[in-house]
Design a protein that fits this description.
4-stranded antiparallel β-sheet, 54% strand
Length: 121
Amino acid sequence: QVRLEESGGGLVQEGDSLRLSCRITGRTLSTHATGWFREAPGKEREFLAAINWSGDVTPYADSVEGRFFISRDNDKNTVYLQMNSLKSEDTAIYLCAGLDESTGWSPLGYWGQGTQVTVSS
């Protein structure tokens, strides 16, 4: 019964910032975490970062290191992705997904529908 719903996408210009939200409903196991992915046209789905319920964060993808930051607010059942210094190549559909920390942060099979981020030059 776990559901994830992304929001916060939109059309921005290069250099702008944007914060995405992943609202989580339902209960998860203690080893379950949440990760952000993106899907750009012509590219494979890319893992960006993940965070568990204790606030531990995985290394960031090289493409977003130093620009994107993942965080969470457990009281609001929400995981965030703060995106700074956006580039045109960041244009993609951004999705959040449940991950299992006990199995190497592997996907659990439940995803949000995605939110579109378009960065114009």
